[in-house]
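Lab notes, practical 5.
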Amino acid sequence: MAVGVPDGGGQIPFCLRSGNPYKRGGMHRTATIILIPARMASTRLPGKPLADIHGLPMIVHVLRRARAAQIGEAVVATDSEAVAAAVEKSGGRAIMTRADHVSGSDRVYEALEALDPEHRIGVVVNVQGDLPTIEPADIRAVLAPLADPAVDIATLAAVIADPAERSNPNVVKVSGKMVAPDRMHATTFTRADATGPGPHYHHIGLYAYRRAALERYVKRPPSANEQREKLEQLRALDAGMRIDVAIVKSVPLGVDTPEELAKARKMLGG
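Output from the prediction step:
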């Protein structure tokens, strides 16, 4: 099975089974790419990339929203040929990656290196494959902090509106210094209770990396803070990398359980 990436004169075939480009031609110059990591081995909702939402697999809903952002090529990075086949059937592109990756960031990096070995792409947007309600405008918004050359990684957050979220350990909170009305320089991410007058911010796990920052990140071992909090973004902060946060209006639904899948079906039913 193979898919193509335009090279300005047709399609370069990519072998989904190996995830590596055949040696012909070169990729057109693209500043930004969206990569969507997807794996079948979810503990709470096995096979969730292929979960049906009104006749389409969830991963296809995410891919269509990523495309609608119109900031660059959108490609699914997966370890499942079934996911790759579903993406291809929908007219999308997928690339196979190893099955042993610990994180989505590692999967994204492998896919990026395979798709663009000449390093023409400078910015990588990592959109999680379980966000079928993500707004395309919010995907675009994550690029704004990278206009500042001091920023290594950009991500998203929204103001916590539900008081119960302040003490929910499943809600990751981000705090830092506001540098603009809609932008924060992050200093910490935590699962601990949010305290004080606020506002408090709910972190949204969507990232835009400068390519060099992604490479530096995936090649570092997990940090002590990362292991304690079970939050990978702390590895970057502990390494002295700068993460800025674009503030958006709402938090997309992350689908990890059958109950959340039912909610996504209801939200997308119109």
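Observations recorded by the TA: Residues 1-30 have pLDDT under 50 and may be disordered. Residues 1-130 form a domain with the Spore Coat Polysaccharide Biosynthesis Protein SpsA; Chain A fold (CATH 3.90.550.10).
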